Amino acid sequence: MPDLEHLSRTFVELADTLVDEFDVVDLYARLAERCVELFDVSAAGLVLADTYGTLRLVASTSEAIETVELFQIQNDEGPCLDCFRERRAIFVADIASERGRWPRFTPFATDAGFRAVSAFPMRLRSRVLGALNLFGATPNAMPPSEADSAQALADVATIALLQHRAVHDAETISAQLEGALHSRVAIEQAKGVVAESLGVDMQTAFTLLRGHARAHQRALSEVAEEVAAKKLIPSTLEG
Q1: What is the mean pLDDT of the chain?
Q2: Do domains 4-164 and 182-238 have the same CATH topology?
């Protein structure tokens, strides 16, 4: 069972984003990190659908899980795709036993060090926008109490994305998703620039970018775009 105090703080943290302006990519990165802290999982990833219904990676807690998530999307196979398409949570206690279900994904995920997965739909009413995916390093079934909490966090994060909007306005929803995905591209470019310039790994580069954005009360996407455009020098992020 997750630590109730930590879980409560996470809900408050997500609720604090329900304002006129907030950084979508930073919100989802924070959600993924909190899930790893709260639940018995080793990594988390989050995917959202673009205008055409194609899933795109928005947040991940490690390079390993980022690779696994991208493999699912590129090969059109895996638990996060099933979760999104079937509009329901997917629970797999031992990925190695699912080779018949996902013949390409299963060996790739286990070789990457993952043995269990729970995928939760990012949903609001009947609409599913993506999936929150939690991976474990050992075969293990997620307890019902943790599953309920994870789905609740995914639901709150989805509401945050659509906050103060008409949920049936398809154009508004698409614009928000496209904005989040565009920000992700800029952040990935900036991570590469920072990693190469400072000689750090991609996860450390992301931490530096986000820390700078928070310290200066700026949107993560704006900082990333400046770094990618070489308007902001990577070495200043370490201060």
Answers
A1: 84
A2: no
Architecture of domain 4-164: 2-Layer Sandwich (3.30)
- In the predicted model, what is the mean pLDDT of residues 51-61? 88
- The DSSP letter of residue 127 is E
Q: Is domain 182-238 classified as CATH 1.10.3470?
A: no
pTM over 0.85: no
Output the CA torsion 204→210→213→215 (10° steps): -80
Confidence of residue 43 (pLDDT cuts 50, 70, 90): very high
Determine the average pLDDT of the residues in 39-53.
Answer: 90
- Evaluate whether 35 touches 150 at the Cβ level (below 8 Å): yes
Residue boundaries of the structural domains of the chain = 4-164, 182-238
Exposure string for 71-90, b = 16+ CB within 10 A, e = fewer: bbbeeebbbbbbbbeeeebb
